Amino acid sequence: xxxxxxxxIWRYLLPGLLLCLAAVPAPAQTTNTCVECHASxxxxxxxxxxxxxxxxxxxxxxxxxxxHGGDPTLADMDAMSKKAGFRGKIEKKxxxxxxxxxxxxxxxxxxxxxxxxxxxxxxxKTSVHGKLLAQGDQKVAVCTDCHGLHGLRPASxxxxxxxxxxxxxxxxxxxADAAYMKDHHxxxxxxxxxxxxxxxxxxxxxxxxSAPTCTTCHGNHGAxxxxxxxxxxxxSNCHVFQSQLYEKSTHKAAFQRSALPGCMVCHGKHDISHPxxxxxxxxxxxxxxxxxKPGDVCDQARVKxxxxxxxxxxDIHNADKVLAVAEAxxxxxxxxxxxxxxxxxxxxxxxxxxxxxxxxPVNQDVQAxxxxxxxxxxxxxxxxxxxxxxxxxLAAALLSIFLVLAGLRLYIGKIEQQKAR
Amino acid sequence: xxxxxxxxxEPSVKLLQQAYDWLDERLDxxxxxxxxxxxxxxxxxxxxxxxxxxxxxxxxxxxVCTGIxxxxxxxxxxxxxxxxxQYIMTRVQFGWLIRSIHSWAANLxxxxxxxxxxxxxxxxxxxxxxxxxWVTGMLLLxxxxxxxxxxxxxxxxxxxxxxxxxxxxxxxxxxVIGKWIMIFLRGGEEVTGATLTRFFGFHVALLPGITTVxxxxxxxxxxxxxxxxxxxxxxxxxxAPAEASEMKFFxxxxxxxxxxxxxxxxxxxxxxxxxxxxxxxKADPFAAAPLGIKPEWYFLFMFQTLKLIPAKVWxxxxxxxxILTFGAAGGLWVLLPFFDGVARGRGRRMILGxxxxxxxxxxxxxxxxxxxK
Lengths: 421, 373
Fold this sequence. Notes:
The complex is a heterodimer of chains A (421) and B (373). Chain A has 21 helices and no strands. Chain A has 421 residues and is mostly helical. In chain A, helix 19 packs antiparallel against helix 20 (334-353) and helix 19 runs parallel beside helix 21 (359-420). Residues 1-10 and 16-29 of chain A have low confidence and may be disordered. Chain B has 373 residues and is mainly alpha-helical. Chain B has one domain: Cytochrome Bc1 Complex, Chain C. Chain B is built from 16 helices and 4 strands. Chain B is globular and about 65 Å long. The A-B interface holds A 330-332, 334-335, 390-391, 393-394, 397-398, 401-402, 404-405, 408-409, 411-412, 415-416 and B 86, 89-90, 96-97, 251-252, 255-256, 258-259, 262-263, 265-266, 269-270, 273-276, 278-279, 281.
């Protein structure tokens, strides 16, 4: 009822309100003759109204003139006259400095985005890109190559070229182009390899935007390949425990002596795959045997470590199987199933402990996991025994009930026969 | 002579005989059970429907017994309810059996109560003078559904939590008093531990109290008026009185009823042992509702209908219209015998048609509710 009354009020109020709104003068539109003309030009001179409208700079109130100079309020070519301060097309080598005019100015940037860093230009100058640009290399990336030109979106926008999901593709525009990179004498298969990696899968399939992409390891504005000595530092940003264990291991010193790049020796570089116990084996995925000889002390330890891990994995699998059967039979085994996660955690911990390259730490974790898995297996077996016991009980109960039913039927027959006589 | 009399009496049997004699002298058993001895049950082709009421009563008795046993360990608080049921299921000797029987018997009881109601409807057993028997029976059916709704929340698992949220939300849609009903049921704006405590109170005190009184009234009325004979059988017997047949309630019908109870017990045993009632995961009020959440089967036909009604029917809110329609239909259903009393010929056939439609509608919507995503 109340809703109806309200509706009636709106029926009279709404037209009046609309009339009032129509009478209010619209705010004056800022004239931008640049877009008016450039929208009808062919690329690369074309800038559509849509591109301009979606550009973060335009949204913040900047105009074409903010970068290119000129006066967009004037008509025709007057807008692009020298008198109006028109700078025309910005030369590539001038771009970092032009962007840096605002983006390196902390006081200015604070007005728009106080949390945005203002060291991009300084970092860029330390990057391989920046250094080569300073040497006159026109092929290297400048701000607009990665961030885009017109229609530029913030990095948090999934349509931005520098959104985590798109970074690798953006880098690959140059770095996967063998002809373009010919003069720089570096490989161009990084992107192809990266797309096969566990990191790429975590990013694209798992939707984990914190998964590493090119800039995570190489840096963004200060992009440069990490040196051999700093590889471990780069990986340890995410893989903290592995790094701490590796730090104490004998491999650290051995790799340093041979100038080997730490983590990469076993795990690879751009095509890092998900590590598996097969890496400790002797098959095609083996990594230990790339350096160690069969039968040496390290190989013997490897065999024991692999054996321990395999045993724990089997124990967990066996307990899972029994618990699944018990659960499918309607038995309450949720507690044991929950504890199985602890056994799995112990297996993960044992696999991390491998980075210490010693048998004891791995065994310690494996033993802890085996104890839990054994307890859960026992719980599953007990549940199955209980299930069988219940079924036996049911059979006995059904037999008794059947006998009572038969007895009752006979008794009813008997008393009714007696009455009939 | 008593039914345990033996020729060669043991001292213990002698003591029992003395106790019996002592009580008999004061209570006069013969006079007390005279109505039962005299009572007869009509025998015809549809007499087997008479067992349904007794089976429902037996299942209610089981509910009381298993419910009392569950009370020994159950703890009605959001922090302990789930764990206490888990404890009953895993640690308490035969706890799994008691809980499974309680859950399965609850469902079977509602099923037999529905079947009993429809058998009474189609056999026209609600006719004068049994109007009040029908009314008390219908109220008992609603109470059984109330038992189901309140008991479903008690294990405090995810499904129960969200089903209660949806169910009380629907109650909140009732015009004028809906909001008040919802807050009364929930013990606040949201489903919380307060709702659990409240539902526990309804389930173990309020509903059993009312149910006991109504069962007493229902059984009294059944005894008072005896079993109804379907109109067409009654007609036939009038034309050919020699065809009329009946059996003694005690012991003939009573022993047959016992056979039906034993059969129900066997079904319950099979269900409890082979398909123990699952516990699910503990309710997390901050988690998102599971997809495709559905109420218990006996509410499913109403739930599915409410889902199918468009958001707006002309200018009325669709859900509200559905709730009002179900409320009105329930009310009219309770008063059915009074319409039958005034209706003649075509009107009575219409009542039969409505009954068949209601049964088909409930069955179809329940199946649809299970199949629909």
